[in-house]
Amino acid sequence: MMEVRVNDTMDVPPQIMESIELVRKRLSCMGDVDFIDKDLTGPATHLINSGGKLVRPGLVFTSACVLNQDPRKFVDLAASIELLHTASLIHDDIVDRDRLRRGLDTVHEKYGIEKAILAGDALISKAINMASSYGERVVKRAAEVSMDMCAGEILDYETQFGKSQLGIDAYLKVARLKTASLIAVSTSIVADFLDSGMRDTLYEYGMRLGYAFQIRDDIMNFLGINDRSRKDTKTDAKNSRPNLVSVLMPRYELGAAMEAVKINNHYLESAKDIVKGIHNNDYLASYAEFLKIEI
């Protein structure tokens, strides 16, 4: 089996780490007061309290620093992005019929499908509510990315259950809609709030980063070296789930994983290239470097 090396630690600037911890505290305080019916509290907060890495909030704060903003001003905005992500995981696990997430029972496994669906819906509504204080542009962007993720989930479902064929173009479309779109919004939504001319550059950086993020995950799943933050590493192959290594196999056979690594690292290099001219871009570049896979 091909030997790969992945990074598992990253130096995060203190002001970003402080803001991430504020998001963690904000989310950990969510309870009955946040939901009209207290029966939603358990299923809605199950994954929130399971120790997620808060990657997307971290990217919100990174872009704030790049734009010379105090990241602490965007704690609620970053938390709303994390709620959208969590809602997508709840619904994704239902569609995929997965039983584990982050080392725990999935929400539908623990609370039932009905409550899981409603919990995901409630988190989306809560996310939009939290984002609303940042203005119309931000709310519109949050709504658009929610629709993107739904479209990606449909394509994912159709692939898994034999309703469509999965080639490289279809794979990249699923990756763009399900994963890269939210990461791109995370890197650019502060620029949306500010109506900054850097918005498109930060969005494209996040899109390329998002493709690499998904491909890296696929490689780790395929090789069985993923960590507890993800699902059972064997379920991708079992359920014909979109995975770049599997998609590449007909063309590259035993070299498919190697080719996937090359594609991952290509996206990361292009992400670094697009922000080269941005002042204070060190953390943007270092995050791309963190996602690289060495062979």
**Unreliable runs, pLDDT <50, ≥5 residues?**
228-235
Largest sheet: 2 strands, antiparallel
Number of helices: 13
Structural class: mainly alpha
Question: Which CATH class is shown?
Answer: Mainly Alpha
Portion in helices: 55-70%
Order of helices and strands: EHHHHEEHHHHHHHHHE
CATH fold naming: Farnesyl Diphosphate Synthase
Q: Per the principal axes of the C-alpha atoms, what is the gross shape?
A: globular
Largest sheet: spatial strand order = 1-4
Query: What proportion of the residues form beta strands (DSSP E)?
Result: under 5%
Core attributes:
Farnesyl Diphosphate Synthase; 66% helix; single chain; 295 residues; two-stranded antiparallel ribbon; mainly alpha; globular; 3% strand; 4 strands
Walk me through this protein's architecture:
With 295 residues, the chain is mainly alpha-helical. The protein has one domain: Orthogonal Bundle (Farnesyl Diphosphate Synthase). Helix content is 66%, strand content 3%. It has 13 helices and four strands. It has helices spanning 14-28, 41-45, 55-66, 75-96, 107-111, 113-131, 136-160, 168-194, 199-223, 235-238, 244-252, 256-274, 282-290, and strands at residues 5-6, 100-101, 104-105, 293-294. The strands form two sheets. It has a two-stranded antiparallel sheet. A hairpin with a 2-residue loop joins strand 2 and strand 3 (104-105). Helix 3 (55-66) crosses helix 8 (168-194) and helix 12 (256-274) packs antiparallel against helix 13 (282-290). The protein is globular, with a radius of gyration of 18 Å. Residues 228-235 have low confidence and may be disordered.
